[in-house]
User: Fold these one by one.
Assistant:
Number 1:
Amino acid sequence: MTGPVLEIRDLRVDYGFGDDPTHVLRGVDLTLHRGEVLGLAGESGCGKSTLAYAATRLLPPPGLITGGEVWLTDREGNRNDILGLTDAQLRAARWRDVAIVFQGAMSSLNPVFRIGRQLTDGIRAHRPGLSARDLEARAAELLEMVGISADRLRAYPHQLSGGMRQRVMIAMALALEPQVLLMDEPTTALDVVMQRQILEQIMELRDRLGFSVVLITHDVSLLVEVADRIAIMYAGEIVEEATAADVYRRPRHPYAHGLLGSFPPLHGPRRELAGIPGSPPDLQRLAAGCPFAPRCPHAMDVCQQVRPVLGPPRTGEARRVACHLHGADLPGDVAFPAELAR
């Protein structure tokens, strides 16, 4: 990793207009380094997909970006704020510098066009000088790169399996060899065997082509296997960010600890699963303190009154966590939870 390729700074997004919008992203900071796989995890509705769409300016109405910056460093080392690009500059940057794989392949692929036509459309828009033969050859190369025979170029989306359609979406995203690949729960609708095959293929392509990945999912156990770092989101904020190994073995935020306890371990002895009590908060009526406090088994009085700031824990670890339990001003009479201190 030689430096940041994507930097999100104080990104804020509202849903709705007028005097009472819903604040769905509230000052998100995130950095993706070259060649890195960054996992983004959290419950449904925490803001993961909104973050990806806002960072690429694909957020549909009534979503509105109200503040922040998204800096992309291109291959020449130039930094550009995606939120400040003109429409022409943004069109040139999409698919060439940053691409996205959406959650539902069947909803993203056009059902009335053949796969080959859909693969070449983006290439033709960015490289108009290529001949029809070169475009077809590139489309065939892309399909074979993701493990699909080139004779499937003439197939329609409904003639492919779910796993093959998702591979086509990955091939389409990699057509112009972008630097950043955003993947919004790309394996959610697939069985576990196909999930494993697709993720292994993504990692192999990452090693070969050198792009960086933001992998969005609600399955933390999946990220532990493939991600270099993991960021945990809750109620439109990052509440913990650390290496995948640290999040798995030593989660610091009670919410991250609860997420890990909600999934069966991939290795080691069996253990009883424990869900997180309660429900995610209403983003229109957030309390003044920590958004997770009503569901947290370790909540203190300060948690009800003061919102924690994302930063390094008092132990000086190379990670960030937004929790009063890890603040420097932790009261001396508070018993520190053993499961968050190991």
Number 2:
Amino acid sequence: MAHQKISPPFSSRRLHEVFFTRNKTIAVCIVTTLMALFGSVAYTKPQSHRDIYKEAYIYGFPMVMNYGIMYAYFVDRNSGQFKAPFNQIYNEARVFTPKDTAVVTPNSDTPYSFVGMDLRAEPLVLTVPQVEKDRYYVIQLIDMYTFNYGYIGTRSTGNEAGNYLVAGPNWKGQTPPGIKKVIHCETQFSLAGYRTQLFGPEDMKNVIKVQSGYKVQPLSQFLKQPPPPAAPAVEFPPFTADGMKTNFPKFLNFVLQFCPPVKEENALRARFAGVGIAANKPFDPDKLSVSDKADEASAVSQGYSEIVKRKDQIGANINGWLVGSILGDRAFFRGDWLLRAAGAMAGIYGNSAAEAVYPMAKSDVSGEPLDGSKHNYKLTFAAGQFPPVNAFWSVTMYDGKTQLLIENPINRYLINSPMVPGMKKGEDGSLTIYIQKDAPSSDKMANWLPAPNGPIYMVMRLYWPKQTKPSILPAGAGTWSPPAIEVAN
């Protein structure tokens, strides 16, 4: 979320702003509408249509959110967020700014590359170049459930050059020659999100060089063989936030056709089918009974507060930071669809904890919510107490209402470890970051993290966190803790 947003990830307090306010970006519309539509009560056996609708909303929340991004990135050339057609890599030779609104809590540490993968006809081969040993990079593989089903990169496979095969659910072949590893995806479409570390503005030319070595090609092309028959053309339904109020089942039914059911979900899918939620099945809300319409409306009204509540309870509150593991593979969630929905709400496309941990600032040291219109703040790392990582760390500022990056006069959206040598230290070797909406005195400018004139949403990122003490792992119960945020005098 991207958070690396992912960080579209989410904030809204009034439903009428979702459905009746115009001129919203697609990301905010996706986020706020979905937040209004999803929710869950305790996971008891559903006894009514209302329970099943609610269960389906929770289950499908990240999947429909993912579809909205996929549609903006790889289908709708007029979305303003379009990257490239499926199976073509798109490199961003820049870091994200407030103009990037398709994903909330976006990571602005690392230039991104993206591939929307259509795996129906044949697998894809992802080729990576030799990357210098001190530069971190990662390719995160995300399926249509939003599970992180595979990784390529510094932590998982090293910085050596290589070819990696990503195969869809229907491919049963043997590992071809020249392939280092085969990675299986449960769904027929997938996203590959690349992050390449940038050491500073002058380093962009080196990042571009690394990005130029990223290649994507169908397996048949890699093997210099005739291609298999093309997959059928897909008529992707336009994703609009207004339609989500009543047409959520339409989008979920569309997505489900590309997600062959696994054994774990057979009973779940059977329950959904009982209320018309099934793979590629038309869904007409006008044909619902009066009772079903009431049940669906009840699920909507309850869902909003339930998902927000679950998101705010993720992990442990440590010095005002929420620290926990919220994203991972299928085994990580173990059927907890509410956690999966809350994780997507907090930062869709975030990494699994072994790759990155994302403490989220919840309050200042006194327990009060962070608000740049009310206070200036400071965050101090004691000497030798920087976040313990094998790669790098950062602290990124977002608007608390939208969870998007904010405009500011110095175009600084974060402070990260590569910036530390150029920052002012205390006499004891400590480092203080000044968090405020207005520029501080000149002696503090190098340490200024501009804040919004209102609610603050701030995320710390620890890339490739260390396993040995001190460590933030296991997330929420580690031996290293983020320092408290204090109100500045």
